[in-house]
Amino acid sequence: MSLKSKILTRKGLGVISGVIVLTILILLLILERLMASPHVYFPEWHPNGEYIVFYQWEVDKVRDDTITKMYRIDRNGDNLQRIGPAEPGYPSLPTYSPDGKYLLFSNLTNIYKLDIENGSSEKLTDADDVRFFGPQFSPDGQTIVYDNMSPKGNIHLMKSDGSEQHKLEVNGSRPAFSPDGKSIVYHAITAENEQIMLMKSNGEFVKQLTTGPSDSFDPSYSPDGKHVVFGKTLKKGWNEVFEINIETGEERKLTSLDQEIWGVDYSPDGLSLIFAAGPNLYLMNRTDGIVKNIYQSR
After folding, report:
1. How far is CA 128 from the centre of its chain?
2. Rounded-to-integer distance, Cα 240 and Cα 269, Å
3. To the nearest whole percent, how much of the chain has pLDDT over 90?
4. In what helix (H) or strand (E) does residue 19 lie, and over which residues does it extend?
5. What's the DSSP call for residue 33?
6. Which of 257, 256, 241 is CA-nearest to residue 43?
């Protein structure tokens, strides 16, 4: 299981103390320099289905440091372009607004909104003692849901301009709106492990979607709102992609790659999935299950 992903998303947002997090992160940065290819994380689709955004860790040889960079790529793997702030830093977890004009991203501590046309970034949160992560727009683009690095993770809401920030009475991480904006899916730490949960957009708990001994995490809604795709830890700590029917609770395993899979997202038409595994981005056809490697970092 990727410790870096835990730091930036799941249990790293929850149960690991700040000192341990910093120690592990330093070790990870050293190990990252030894990797032949930087790992890529958490790809998401552009609303038009033609582009994909993601981020990856890279070595900045000028600064002798390890940083993150965000990229955009065509759905067929062509035309790789760096996006986001030009200055070195740790931008991560990019996600588009419904109209495709803006990009939300985290930068270790705060959440920013990037105007794609003019390239300017606006800081939406102003934290110095917590770390905000995983922002996602509501379908109408008026609201943003996000989480923070606290003992068990807390889910927050704010307006798209950064106003009216408030915390929901829900412990969890990686929240995402349903297509109709009425519900939010997220993962939470239970007494035994991590499971996928469902709540109303006002924070009212609805139900636990997943069960069992394995950790389930990083959920995302299908465009029709009937399914949720997520990662699940199986043998040897490898993660695979699963899909669950929200109404029936029936789960379906979609991959058998025996890799570290971090971040999976439905295409806007619901016919494809994009996910990251190690240095690779994979595109899956949901009709026939064929998986194609569209990008490998270098």
Report:
1. 22
2. 22
3. 55
4. helix 18-34
5. H
6. 241
Structure confidence by residue, pLDDT tens digits, 15-59:
444 455 455 555 555 555 444 468 899 999 999 999 999 999 877
Q: How many whole angstroms separate alpha carbon 103 and alpha carbon 125?
A: 15
Band (12; pLDDT cuts 50, 70, 90): very low
**Other Cβ atoms within 10 Å of 40 Cβ, number:** 24
CB neighbours of residue 197 within 10 Å: 23
Q: Are 147 and 156 in contact (CB under 8 A)?
A: yes
**Strand ranges (E), 161-246:** 166-171, 173-177, 183-189, 194-200, 205-208, 216-221, 227-233, 239-245
Distance CA 105, CA 116 (A): 12
Cβ distance 188 to 153 under 8 Å? yes
Residue 285's Cβ-side half-sphere holds a number of Cα atoms within 13 Å equal to: 6
CB contact set of 4 (below 8 Å; sequence gap of 6+): 25, 28, 32, 39, 57
The Cα angle at residue 173 between residues 207 and 21, in degrees rounded to 5: 145
